[in-house]
Amino acid sequence: MRVYCRDDERIWRNARFILEDLAQGKAGESVVLIADGATYTPARALCDCARDLGMSAIVVDVDAYGGRERYADIPVIPPLKAAILAADICFMLTPQMMTDFGTYLGAVDDCDEALLGKSRRFTLEAGGMEEWDLDPEEILNYRKRTEKLLDWLKVGKELHVTTARGTDFTCEIGDKPDGMYPVLAIIPFYAEVAIIPNLGGVTGTVVADGASECTEEHRGLPIRPGIPGYQELHKPPLRFTLEKSIVVDYDGDPVQVARLKEWMETSEPQANVADEVGIVTTTSRENDTYGWIVDRTHQTHSLHVALGNNTRRGEIIHGTEHVDFDIHDPTLSIDGETFCTDGVFDDGPIFKNRP
Length: 355
Prior knowledge:
Shape: globular
């Protein structure tokens, strides 16, 4: 494990940007950092930096409570739960998809509460923090892009998504979706607008040429794995057809199709509904290297459509089963006005003033 020193200007600069610019930390506030052996170095740097900025900070190493490969089995630890709830700011540096704030607090909804910024609880993509050469202006700009795009989606009528590989679907926006949220609490490299369509708002063809995320229960391999060592992205993409948000047809690689069929049909209720359309707004390629490394989903230059069984639409993003399917290099338009072409954003339409 690399041990940083306080004279390491790069990691110190990165820590300060995270604390002051992204978390909006102030002197006198308290900070809890949840770490493990793999993330102890950035946690230590953040802790020391926070203290230099006048904050109270503590690192909690959770390796002792089950190990990095068994986070799902960790019981709620009352002192840790109390520390998270009492802290002004909390950073989770443990590997994404292995755990979340719902795990530590004992309530599934706390995962979404954190992701949607309803608390100052952040998932920190901490890997390689001593190596990052952050571009603060770029990061702050795509976070602003996320907010501006959400504002536009709220006054539009229809989002249209196409790709060169055959994706072609529409999603109702404006006041039609059950929810639309900026996902800005996975830092520093990720940003997204998550649309929770109503039960009839998505129609057309999805061609998932990227990876699919792990299922909620992590039952075996993901449906379309991008995991190093188990990567199946060289196989034909999964294609599914949606009519009023319901999957009515699907095809692709036979093994992946069989996984999809088994997962949809054995989930209770069935997971054959378009539960989310997620527009990934980050342009940081570091997101692909240091961020969503567990299952290789949520990449830059992508959009994802989630199938699932959310019965609490409008309250949360994730149902008991929820799987995102990445669609690479999408072209996106709102009411005929294009703002992203082959995965590359045009901020002109997004930042345009609207009534």
